[in-house]
Design a protein that fits this description.
Radius of gyration: 27 Å
Bound molecules: 1-deoxynojirimycin
Shape: globular
Helix content: 25-40%
Structural class: alpha/beta
Number of strands: 26
Strand order of the largest sheet: 11-16-15-14-12-13
Length: 747
């Protein structure tokens, strides 16, 4: 029978007739999934589990779709081409099952938002949700149904290039941002013409790659996996994430794509998740290079048995699942479940009802409200790391500004990594924005200093220095080109590249006021540059609207409100350095002897020894959560609603925040806890909550958090998640290294 005449297509007709029909109820989706499944051949089922890349499809692609051998495509965004291919799937394949179209829409589609690590710095999940909604609207308008985002890989290593795509080192921040992004992409109804399916990735612990080298092995033990790396995934799945991608890394010898214990046993059986699991690009057959499978057939077997529903591009499912099923090496039940997961996704996306993209609709790309959202996110993502008072610049008093550095006018590079559909022609650079917004009042001298971030030539430095000498203030835009971060772009030395260090040093030597704006895909080791400058604004890669956002901040039309989502190491040798570490039995005291103070021929002793580096100490350059504003905030009167919390109770945590400066600004009030003793050693601090609070000059607000035992829970020695009774320390403050402190007991 031709399924095109069957119930799910009749339902589609009914939907068209009764305009405004609501999203299909779950029970109806399951009924339709089962009905379709009952009519599919084994080959058609396996076809649904196969994803191809459009550019690698070649002339056989159309035939493969017609024959039901393709369930999904990625890397095609031309609406006319998409409609043509979809038409083959819907009208010419036996069952008429539509294709689901995937794309890496990581931080915007055409309107590019700050890279995710920058978005994390906003500490503003609602803004992140809005950004994802903008990206979804733009992507779906050209026919994309499914993004491979958010990336929820916690990273404690600033050498790892892919940290740009994630939310940093903290599980609570990662969980909130991840859940917000999922909600933004998917909206209330994934079948809406403004929604796309999210894909949480990379499952799991990919960000713990040894040495920060991409694709590298990880060795995350079970407790740490549950208590850190899995937390953002649980939250995003709870928020309704429709799909999940397995990771490239092997953890303790098991590649993510072959990890049955984590995918089938935990994600499916324990968490009861009914979404769809896709492999990463060729990560099924890469299990051969891992030494985990002898050939593509064994790789397909291990991936399918682990619970990977769809194989991205490597084709081993298509070729080998038929014989694996026939030989009883992959149970038919697993195949049916995988196909159910794929069909459920397509139904939830409304693809059976609306398989085509409407090419007559007005363009949603770069809509003014999208650009405004991107600009606001860029404003909120910038972190002020230092300011001796030079910022904000006063447009009425500054006469000449020298704008220098390779990132001042780098329209491609400020967009950051993974911007397949962003266009540099639509980027507003800082130089262009400063000229447009202040060029009428202020003389702007532009010198690049170095042409691009890796440029080793020092030829342009003298002109930049000369410009600095002529100007009242120099704003140096330094950092990294987009291609120095992202997939497979790890750095052993994550500092300023090329001749930029020399450029900054020479500018500093002029003694003229120097403001650094750092645009980068990761935290950079910029201790010397911070030392040599009067102010430092860290903007990560700020996206399409980075220029006007930074201009607003530099001239004080907005006050910086970003906070660091990762600890900044002083130097690469300190990595990994992160705030929520365990304490060791010999914690650093702060009065340790540094290398130059050790007497000659000092005798070896272990007395008084602590955990630190002789040459760098243990302290980072900047702690997690850190960031300044153009005002000052004071914390006072930290009060808990009681000295004890019971297992089914809660505690109110209240502190007064006062803006003691002269301008309105936003503070990110942060609540940290330390579980003093547990069945496992507990981190020295853990972020439990945060709130952005905007106060005018002189204003005060009582900031109240509610803390529950649930937030204190962790997987203990017995593998059970619960809060353990005992003493807790608690801080409310501006970052992970300071704040008011009190304590309570959990009974
Ligand atoms: C490989 C990357 O690891 C993954 O994040 C991405 O979504 C896929 N390629 C598809 O482009």
């Amino acid at each position: 029978m031709n399924m095109k005449k069957s119930t799910f297509h009749i339902f589609f007709t009914a939907c068209l007739v009764f305009a405004g029909c609501s999203p299909v109820p779950d029970s109806e989706i399951e009924r339709r999934v089962d009905q379709m499944l009952s009519q599919m051949t084994i080959e058609e089922k396996i076809g649904q589990m196969n994803q191809l890349s459009y550019d690698a499809g070649g002339p056989q692609l159309e035939d493969a779709i017609r024959d039901g051998r393709v369930g999904s495509l990625l890397n095609v965004v031309d609406p006319a081409v998409l409609n043509g291919l979809q038409n083959i799937a819907v009208e010419e394949s036996r069952l008429g099952i539509p294709l689901v179209i995937g794309r890496d829409v990581i931080h915007g589609f055409r309107t590019i938002f700050p890279i995710p690590i920058g978005q994390a710095a906003t500490f503003d999940p609602e803004l992140v949700r809005q950004g994802a909604a903008v990206a979804a609207r733009e992507a779906r308008s050209v026919g994309v149904h499914w993004t491979f985002a958010p990336m929820l890989d916690i990273s404690r290593d600033q050498r790892w290039g892919r940290l740009a795509e994630g939310f940093g080192e903290d599980p609570v921040l990662g969980a909130r941002m991840g859940a917000a992004m999922v909600r933004g992409y998917q909206g209330d109804d994934m079948s809406a013409p403004t929604s796309i399916a999210a894909c949480v990735k990379h499952f799991v612990a990919y960000g713990a790659a040894e040495g920060g080298r991409d694709y590298n092995s990880t060795n995350v033990p079970p407790h740490l996996m549950r208590n850190l790396y899995l937390i953002p995934f649980e939250a995003a799945i709870e928020a309704g994430a429709a799909t999940l991608m397995t990771s490239f890394n092997d953890n303790d010898g098991i590649p993510g794509t072959g990890n049955k214990a984590l995918v089938r046993d935990m994600l499916r059986d324990e968490w009861g998740w009914d979404g769809m699991v896709v492999s990463d690009w060729a990560s099924v057959t890469e299990m051969i290079a891992h030494g985990f499978a002898a050939d593509p057939k064994e790789a397909a077997m291990k991936a399918a048995n682990a619970g990977v529903d769809m194989e991205m591009v490597s084709g081993a499912y298509l070729e080998h699942l038929p014989s694996l099923i026939a030989e009883g090496l992959v149970p038919m039940e697993y195949i049916d479940n995988s196909v159910r997961n794929v069909l459920r996704l397509k139904l939830r996306l409304g693809l059976f009802d609306n398989p085509y993209v409407d090419t007559s609709a007005p363009s949603a790309l770069l809509a003014p409200e999208h650009l405004a959202a991107a600009r606001r996110t860029a404003v909120e993502s910038a972190v002020l790391l230092k300011n001796d008072g030079v910022l904000p610049l006063d447009a009425a008093r500054v006469k000449t500004v020298a704008v220098v550095g390779p990132m001042a006018d780098a329209p491609h590079d400020q967009l950051g990594t993974w911007i397949f559909d962003g266009e540099k022609t639509t980027t507003a650079t800082p130089l262009a924005a400063l000229r447009e917004m202040y060029g009428g009042q202020i003389d702007i001298i532009h010198e690049t200093g170095t042409e691009y971030s890796r440029d080793r030539s020092t030829a342009g430095i003298a002109s930049a220095v000369a410009a600095a000498r002529r100007a009242d203030v120099t704003v140096a835009f330094v950092g990294e080109e987009a291609i120095l971060s992202g997939e497979a772009h790890s750095l052993a030395n994550p500092g300023l590249q090329g001749a930029q260090k020399e450029l900054v040093a020479r500018l500093a030597q002029t003694g003229r006021p120097l403001v650094l704006v750092v645009m980068a895909g990761r935290p950079l080791t910029i201790g010397d540059e911070v030392e040599g400058s009067n102010a430092v604004l860290y903007s990560f890669h700020p996206g399409t609207m980075g220029g006007p956002a930074l201009a607003e901040l530099l001239f004080g039309e907005a006050s910086p409100s970003g906070r660091l989502p990762m600890t900044f190491a002083r130097e690469a040798g300190q990595i990994p350095v992160y705030y929520n570490h365990n304490n060791t039995g010999r914690p650093y005291q702060g009065n340790e002897t540094m290398i130059d103070d050790i007497p000659l021929e000092a005798g070896q002793t272990s007395l008084g020894n602590t955990s630190y580096y002789l040459d760098a100490g243990p302290e980072p350059l900047f702690p997690f959560g850190y960031g300044l504003t153009y005002t000052t905030f004071e914390y006072s009167n930290l009060v808990l609603s009681g000295e004890e919390m019971t297992m089914n109770g809660s505690l109110e945590v209240a502190a007064t925040l006062t803006n003691t400066g002269k301008r309105e600004a936003t503070e990110v009030v942060q609540l940290y806890v330390r579980d003093v003793s547990g069945s496992l050693a507990r981190p020295v601090k853990e972020l439990k909550d945060f709130r952005r609070v905007t106060l005018g000059a002189g204003a005060s607000e009582r900031v109240v958090f509610t803390l529950r035992p649930e937030e204190l829970a962790f997987y203990g020695i017995d593998g059970v998640r619960r809060a353990e009774p005992g003493a807790f320390r608690l801080w409310v403050g501006p970052d992970s290294a300071s704040g008011l402190e009190t304590s309570f007991t959990l009974r």
